[in-house]
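Exercise 7b. Backbone tokens:
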């Protein structure tokens, strides 16, 4: 494919190198750069954002939108409370952020027209909110529009009819649409995405960062003050309802009856931290649960690499929100860890039950406890599952494979003229 000049709009991005907010956006952009394309990414300001204008070959453009610091709430996983409803401050910031997003796209695309190579397309991540300013800018500049849905955007479009109408209009204007899972793909089509312009494009994983690490076990246990032989159950996520962490906590009393020394690590951050800590005390398992807080990407790799069982207990929350394809699932597979995960959303797309991991029904603490206990009791079977998961990642789920698929999406949007 000939080199393209791509203008992306995103509302989340790792706030500094190695930070864990929406790492897939950076990896998609970096993968395209490795394949010879020129990528510019427009991002809203965040007070913790510490990025240089050019990193990993990606041109980053930070735009401001808030006249008061209290309104710096747009994007970076901060606008939704527990991922089930918009915060009032985010609603107040929305007109400002959307207007600033559009202005940033128009300004950047106007500057590119004065250069030797204008932008070939605009690629918006999340149909809501970013699809709207991206659609307007693409129309005014007469260049193709590409939309990627990631989960919460489809949920918002399903939740309110006016937002669904907006999403449908944006989908119809797009030359190419990607979804990270088959579930999201079906739901986007139900919202109006044309099937002949839509693709399932799973995320990838950095197999050099997430790999089998014999040193991780001792290092993480020492950091947590645990004995080297302590059975370690690890779950890494934001603390929001759709991650299902309450059900994992409720599985622990049953796990401890069979593996009394086991420790559960809930690593991450979010609105529900205090609620989860309180629930651990109510269940009488607080002494067996650790909350190390938000981890860097390097630390995430270490904690996952140390896990005897890596758990992704995703659910459809009470508002109907659900994961797309959890990054930590692919990271656990790449690290060859034994996985227990809910059979929901994009998880069954990449995990075949009892081949690459164990799948359980969502919101079923007993099933979680049984699966975790089975893997703790049978290290040989656990290692077999981990090895087969790593093999699948290397064959199908690297970022290089993922970015080749994004080239296919761009070729579709450009009508085959990019070859």
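Sequence design result:
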């Amino acid at each position: 494919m000939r080199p393209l000049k791509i203008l992306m709009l995103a509302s989340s991005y790792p706030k500094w190198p190695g930070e864990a907010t929406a790492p897939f956006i950076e990896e998609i952009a970096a993968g395209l750069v490795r394949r010879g394309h020129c990528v510019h990414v427009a991002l809203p300001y965040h007070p913790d954002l510490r990025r240089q204008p050019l990193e990993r070959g990606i041109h980053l453009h930070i735009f401001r939108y808030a006249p008061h610091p209290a309104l710096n709430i747009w994007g970076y996983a901060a606008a939704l409370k527990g991922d089930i409803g918009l915060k009032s401050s985010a609603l107040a910031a929305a007109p400002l952020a959307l207007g600033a997003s559009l202005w940033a796209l128009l300004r950047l695309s106007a500057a590119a027209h004065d250069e030797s190579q204008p932008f070939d397309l605009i690629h918006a991540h999340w149909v809501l909110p970013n699809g709207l300013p991206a659609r307007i800018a693409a129309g005014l500049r007469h260049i193709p529009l590409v939309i990627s849905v990631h989960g919460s955007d489809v949920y918002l479009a399903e939740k309110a009819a006016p937002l669904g109408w907006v999403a449908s209009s944006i989908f119809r204007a797009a030359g190419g649409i990607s979804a990270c899972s088959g579930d999201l793909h079906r739901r986007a089509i139900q919202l109006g995405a044309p099937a002949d312009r839509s693709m399932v494009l799973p995320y990838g994983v950095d197999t050099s960062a997430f790999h089998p690490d014999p040193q991780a076990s001792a290092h993480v246990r020492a950091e947590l003050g645990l004995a080297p032989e302590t059975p370690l159950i690890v779950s890494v996520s934001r603390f929001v309802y759709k991650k299902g962490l309450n059900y994992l906590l409720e599985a622990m009393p049953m796990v401890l009856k069979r593996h009394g020394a086991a420790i559960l690590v809930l690593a991450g951050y979010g609105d529900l931290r205090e609620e989860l800590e309180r629930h651990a005390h109510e269940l009488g398992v607080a002494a067996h649960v650790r909350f190390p807080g938000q981890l860097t990407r390097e630390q995430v790799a270490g904690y996952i690499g140390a896990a005897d069982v890596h758990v992704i207990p995703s659910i459809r929350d009470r508002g109907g929100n659900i994961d797309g394809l959890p990054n930590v699932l692919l990271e656990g597979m790449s690290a060859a860890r034994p996985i227990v995960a809910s059979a929901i959303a994009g998880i069954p797309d990449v995990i075949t039950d009892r081949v690459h991991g164990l799948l359980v029904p969502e919101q079923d603490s007993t099933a979680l406890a049984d699966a975790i206990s089975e893997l703790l009791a049978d290290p040989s079977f656990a290692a077999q599952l981990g090895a087969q998961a790593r093999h699948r990642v290397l064959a199908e789920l690297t970022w290089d494979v993922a970015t080749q698929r994004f080239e296919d999406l761009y070729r579709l949007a450009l009508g085959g003229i990019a070859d």
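Instructor comment: The two ends are 5 Å apart (CA to CA). DSSP finds 15 helices and 16 strands in the chain.
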